[in-house]
Amino acid sequence: MKKRIFITGSTDGIGKLAAVKLAKDGHEIHLHGRNSEKLEKVVAEIKGLSNNENIKGFVADFSDLSAVKKMAEQIKATLPELDILINNAGVFKSPNADNKAGLDMRLVVNYLASYLLTNELMPSIEKGTESRIINLSSAAQADVSLEVLAGKEKSSMQETYAQSKLALTMWSFYLAKKRQNINVIAVNPGSLLNTNMVKEAYGRFWSSADKGADILYELAVSDNHKGSTGKYFDNDRGAFGSAHSDAYDDAKIEQLIQLTEQLVSEYD
User: Fold this and answer.
1) By CB neighbour count within 10 A (0-12 exposed, 13-18 middle, 19+ buried), where does 178 fall?
2) What is the CATH number of the domain that holds 85?
3) What is the sign of the dihedral through the CA atoms of 35, 65, 102 and 91?
4) DSSP three-state, residue 235
5) How many structural domains are present in the chain?
6) How far apart are CA 139 and CA 129, in angstroms?
7) CA angle 18, 50, 82 (to 5 degrees)
8) Cα distances (Å, whole numbers) of residue 141 to 8, 198, 246
9) What is the tens place of the pLDDT at every residue in 163-213?
10) Which range marks the domain in which residue 72 is found?
11) Taking the model in full, what pTM does it have?
């Protein structure tokens, strides 16, 4: 069965590679990027590579939650039904440490934007067929400071990146419990993959970006993962495993969700 798939951060890296693989299978693919010119080129490129004309693009800067909300409205108007959402967009290094609202760029792009977008698209996802949400976590996960998340304290780039990925994982497990009709999976796609983000951050890589793209593809459409909701896939091990202990702490998750709701409420 052909799926309607939306992938954030899909003009580069593993998001783009996964989009190509899924497009070649004939699925309807909706891409996201923050640069309209680059997005148009990637849409045309994937159409050519896959011989699939059902490729469309949406533009939003994920550091601006108002832009995320606006894009969500455009998506809902185009896609009343959505089968698969892959929250892949992410940032490590950024010219600006904070967004215009004074919130850490990594926590906004990697976590809050995905949270807001997913909740906005929930009506479409609920109408999808065997719907799945794949959230891009990381091997790097660190205790989430609510003060840092709220923009009241500052932490290092590496620390806030790891916090953003644990926050995403904690929310994934929460969402899986709240939306039992949707398959929600958090995934570490692999450490130090050959992507621009990794090379800019570390100047080196361990594995091909295809490793990450392949697991996104599998988790999104393979029948093997129909019953995998509320789990964490560690692609460094090639198997489901345990995330950070806070991802299983209901009290900490509740605190995280309460603050997250406060931070995104003005965009509802």
Assistant:
1) exposed
2) 3.40.50.720
3) negative
4) coil
5) 1
6) 30
7) 55
8) 21, 16, 10
9) 999 999 999 999 999 999 999 999 999 654 444 444 354 444 444 567 789
10) 4-267
11) 0.93
